[in-house]
Amino acid sequence: MKSVVVLSGGLDSTTILYGEKRIAEEVFAISFNYGQRHKKELDMAKATCEKLGVSHKIIDLSCIKELVSNSCLTSDIEVPEGNYADENMKSTVVPNRNMIMASIAIAYAINIGADEVVLGVHSGDHAIYPDCRPEFIEALQKVAEVCDYKKIIVRAPFLYNDKGQIIEKGLEWVVDYSLTWTCYKGLDKPCGKCGSCRERAEAFENNGVIDPLLCD
User: Fold this and answer.
1) Residues linked to residue 55 through DSSP beta bridges, in sequence order
2) Residue 190 covered by a domain
3) Which domain CATH number covers 145?
4) What is the pLDDT of residues 111-136, one digit of tens each?
5) pLDDT class for 140, splitting at 50, 70, 90?
């Protein structure tokens, strides 16, 4: 199989990339600059691909920023602090983000003769992000089967796993988590207070290891 991994530079998709390197004949990574304030994740994605020897493309979608500006990730709206279950976390939703990225990734996969597009969405995303839920992935698969002459498989290996389980698998695969970025605030160091930081910290703690980004 020939895979295209949608790589944000975060913990989940980076773990996916390591997993695909273990099973796929060829792996390609694609990342997106959609005007997110936490662009540091793209630097991490690039560094990981260089480390693993994976072909990597960063697609400039910053032109859509004004079309998805009601999200705190693409505007000056303050990033909320707290847990993902909190109502205020809905401001972190970027309208239709995964559809946009997956659509381009599918086109790229068709163009290079790949068999599948692999996404890093997981169960922790289901409550707050509509485009990370099983029904979205199922619908996306149906679209990927009819959008072109070549049918593309859409996979989300961690769809029913939480972040702690993802890290557990990543530790087994010796994922370099120092080359991942999770914080939404776009600072030089993780804030430790936003929903993404809190979920990450809990996941590492549940695995009895220290987050390498907090070792300094």
Assistant:
1) 28
2) yes
3) 3.40.50.620
4) 999 999 999 999 988 888 999 999 99
5) very high
In a domain, 114, yes or no: yes
Structure token digits, residue 201: 């910290």
Where b means 16+ CB within 10 Å and e means fewer, 75-96 reads: eeeebbbeebeeeebebbbbee
Q: Could you read off the pLDDT of 176-187 as tens digits, one per residue?
A: 999 999 999 988
Residue 10: how many other CB atoms lie within 10 Å = 19
Q: What is the largest CA-CA distance in the chain?
A: 51
- The answer to whether residue 53 is domain-embedded is yes
Residue 128 pLDDT: 87
- For 77, the domain range is 2-211
Check whether 86 has a pLDDT greater than 80.
Answer: no
Please indicate, yes or no, if residue 216 is contained in any of the structural domains: no
